Amino acid sequence: MANSTASIYNQITTAVTNEPGLAGLTPQPDSYLQLQSDLSTTSKVSRWRWIALSVAYVIKLLRDQFDLHERTVKELALEGHFGTRRWFAAKARAWQYGHVLQFSSLDAYYLVDDPSARIVAQVAVVEVGNRVFVKAAKAAGTGLAKLDPPERQALDDYFQELRPPVYVTVISADADKLRLSGTVVYDAQAILLGVQAGVDAAVRTYLQTLEFGGVLRLTDLKAAMLAVTGVVDVQFSLVEARSTGAWATISRIYHSYAGHMAIDAASPITTSMAWQAGNV
After folding, report:
1. Which domain holds residue 69?
2. CA–CA separation, 234 vs 196, rounded Å?
3. Do both 209 and 184 map to the same domain?
4. How far is Cα 134 from Cα 120, in angstroms, rounded to an integer?
5. Which has more pLDDT, 1 or 152?
């Protein structure tokens, strides 16, 4: 983490104070807070202090760039390990619909960088034996939707072109449905409609951004709801989910088929959950 300009300036002035050859510079000792105070008055500021401040600012900019570069390199390293789940997810997000993949001796690339063609908004990766399932969805308004058949086929062809040493199957399906029963305890001083809207938004966001594998965890779902302003407690009596088959009860985790989920339209949170005012 880069130091602040103030911290770097203080380091410079401390070094000046400790250098006998610079004993004639004033004021000594000096600090960033003292400089700010002096700048707010009509008195003149020593030229060396302006130089020190300029150097501190430039050092801060350089360190910010170094930090950014380090974060970028680390992210590339995480995504760059060939064949890992992160690699498959990163490649799915980098796919550009409607563009032809090009190849060099080491990697694949596109001739044109087109962010609007990168339509995969959510991806989950599951490994089963020697097969990898890439579950992809695109943005649709404030939610997610499955890829159209031509889009899904293009993404599947894209992975076949990359030729990973495993079988890759692209899945893009309607969101798995979720319905909740239980009680939400909310602060009596909060407006119920506002709390309900906040909880509904928090749950939708969580379901659209499930981690690798599209796994729902009840502890994470509850934490998302508890993070809403005005929510005091959450207790589930029954949590169920399904893709295309029968409803399944969730006791701890649920592996979604589509890689993302949505609240069942017939069971909105505002009516499926009981809302109880209380402070404990």
Report:
1. 5-78
2. 12
3. yes
4. 11
5. 152
